[in-house]
Amino acid sequence: MVHRVQAVVVRSKNAPVSLETILVPDPGPGEALVDILTCGVCHTDLHYKQGAINDDYPFLLGHEATGVVAAVGDGVTNVVPGDRVILNWRAVCGQCRACRRGEAQYCFNTFNATQKMTLEDGTELSPALGIGAFAEKTLVAAGQCTKVDEDVDPAAVGLLGCGVMAGIGAAINTGSVGLGDSVAVIGCGGVGIAAIVGAKLAGATTIIAVDIDQRKVDLAVSLGATHGVNSRDEEPVEAIRALTEGNGANVVIDAVGRPETFSQAFYARDLAGTVVLVGVPSPDMTIELPLLDVFGRGGAVKSSWYGDCLPSRDFPMLVSHYKQGNLDLDAFVSERIGLGDIEEAFERMHQGLVLRSVVEISDVEITAGLS
Prior knowledge:
Layout: E1 2-10, E2 18-25, E3 31-40, H1 43-50, E4 59-60, E5 64-72, E6 84-87, H2 97-100, E7 118-119, E8 126-127, E9 137-141, E10 145-147, H3 154-157, H4 163-174, E11 182-186, H5 190-202, E12 206-211, H6 214-222, E13 227-230, H7 236-242, E14 249-254, H8 259-268, E15 269-277, H9 291-296, E16 300-303, H10 311-324, E17 335-337, H11 342-350, E18 357-360
Parallel strand pairs: 4-8, 11-12, 11-14, 12-13, 14-15, 15-16, 17-18
Antiparallel strand pairs: 1-2, 1-4, 2-7, 3-5, 3-9, 3-18, 5-6, 6-10
Helix pairs in contact: 4-5, 7-8
């Protein structure tokens, strides 16, 4: 059976997105068909639209999603129809060298659905991060589905599917922030503020938010940072040192991903401290540091890919914290929109006016399959 559903597609570089009918097949072996409930509007979707990921147009956008499993293919055992799930873009293989040594969060052979979703004329779509969730239904590998409780707001927990998880994981998993640590986060967009929230959740006592936009600094302080630094007005390395007894922070997280912010993070950490790069640089960016400083300052310099997340481990744990009131995921939902509002949401995101716009798709909008 083929399902005709509405979805958001971009056909060429920097073209406006369009709401179109696409064809979604029933799941084959190892696959799951998912009715989408919510999907966050993430910078990665904008990068696809702008051609910053690759040029495999047309793209089916959207990836930060929750849904309900509608059907599963042969051999699927981790979910059944009716399960509420968060989608992820790291379905681990269980067989690569990382998985074999018990570090599945670094899986080197993650995979997606084998079958292709298409436009009505048969043109194959490239789903964003192997998901494509700005749609009423999507087809994914079953391993991209993590079952979660149904008694939570899907718009909030769905953000764990990408940006919020990347930030929280950068603090907890990659940075190993612990009780009493000092943490500085450079860049207070959605990922950076999630890193601040993660540092607070891990028990850090000094949490410094750094940004060039005072609105973002103020928001970061309202969500857990103990100090704010506007780096237009203050030199950030000196400001961070001044707030940490002249030493620098135990962990500094660069949530921007530019050479200048990475250099600031490197020099704003304490001796033997940790630098975490979670902001995504562009391919043309380079960094130059004195090798003696790299040696002499000790510690660790790490990159954080998806917050070193293992969805089956991290999603249920963080949803539990959310339910207990320890993790305010609701604060990340700036607005709730429809499938036809995504172009405007990209502009608000670009202007820094929102943490997350979240597309909501009600049950009545989910269309029936047509053969």
